[in-house]
Predict the structure.
Amino acid sequence: MAIKMYDLAAADESVRFSPYCWRVKMALAHKGLQAEQLAWRFSEKDRLAFAEHGQVPVLCDGDTTVVDSWQIMQYLDERYPDKPIFKPDAASAQFFKSWVERSILFLVFQCIVADIHDSLTETDQTYFRETREARLGATLEDVQAKREQHRKALNAALEPVRTTVAKQTFIAGDQPTATDYLLFACFQFARCASSFQLLPAESAVFDWRERMLDLHDGYARKAKGFDISAISL
Amino acid sequence: MAIKMYDLAAADESVRFSPYCWRVKMALAHKGLQAEQLAWRFSEKDRLAFAEHGQVPVLCDGDTTVVDSWQIMQYLDERYPDKPIFKPDAASAQFFKSWVERSILFLVFQCIVADIHDSLTETDQTYFRETREARLGATLEDVQAKREQHRKALNAALEPVRTTVAKQTFIAGDQPTATDYLLFACFQFARCASSFQLLPAESAVFDWRERMLDLHDGYARKAKGFDISAISL
């Protein structure tokens, strides 16, 4: 039976930016697994009631339902052991996941938070503004206005990645693994939701991101994003 | 032939706090290798001339000389493959090393920098103050006076470790590996040079550090440090 996945969509249904969904989409691409990507919006909690979960990604694989991007990545490696994503660095992936979530994702989010809002359907805009402004303690626009500051903090926080990918092709060596997908999903998030450039060109992290965009026949590069839609106007 | 290692010493020759030396000492203990620890002081660059290197640790294993803590750790795993320290997380250790050096060690250093100074011989105090104040752009005392602020930043930066060791015994799983030693060396550094408490008791990172202190028959716990010398007065 086909794999289905609920994936966050912008107002333009073909724009899919969720960093948590991108982790799973890259893991699926890594394994060469096809999955039907069902567009889902913040205001459609009802459609996920079957999974007893209010957030995407949700993966349905035959009769099996798996929620939470991290659990889905682990499920995929167990169920489809060919081309593992957690080797050779399974052990340290837990630390790397926490580092990405605590030190990187929030800085990326702050750089593009008003752009994300603008990309959503009207109903989702209301939901997004209410929930996110309560968490941020500021308007989305005020947070994004300080994006130069967030970008600077982001690039400082990325220093351990810079020294790593200056020495080796991917974060855990010669081949892409879960660690690469965890970090890359943050950049793909920004790329799909905003035209803001997070990384200086001609930097080691920029070059690594280019390699990630090229993986799996340019899977992530082909995704509809802000830049691409701008070109097609 | 016996292994020898040049190890940074305080004015009290039995106090050895260098975080880079502690990486190697923990790696040696992990492998059950005996090494003669030669006391070395900042002002004794001449004694390392044979290695064409001005810093410790320097390891001499028979006719082989290895400098730089990271290279020594890798050398030990190649030369003594039993009980590897880089498995199962060899691939991600490079990232973790950079993270520790960029995000953790400097915060620890700032918390205890005047205490380190006070522990040194008079000649080394002069050298340490000159070189470190030039780097810091402030007096050692002014930096340490803000230690509450540095400690707060340190504990925030440790969040990805907290979530990891709340779930598993060591950073890369059930067994201690290079990642644990890289981080632990920062704490052992502080423990040997200062009485300042970096971590809140009854926290997951505190408990992990206790487990590290217990390893290899309490090897690190037995090291002479500020607390221990205070007790023996």
Observations:
- The radius of gyration of chain B is 17 Å.
- Chain B has ten helices and four strands.
- The interface with chain A takes residues 88-96, 98-99, 101-103, 157, 159-164, 167-168, 171-173, 177, 179 of chain B (CB under 8 Å).
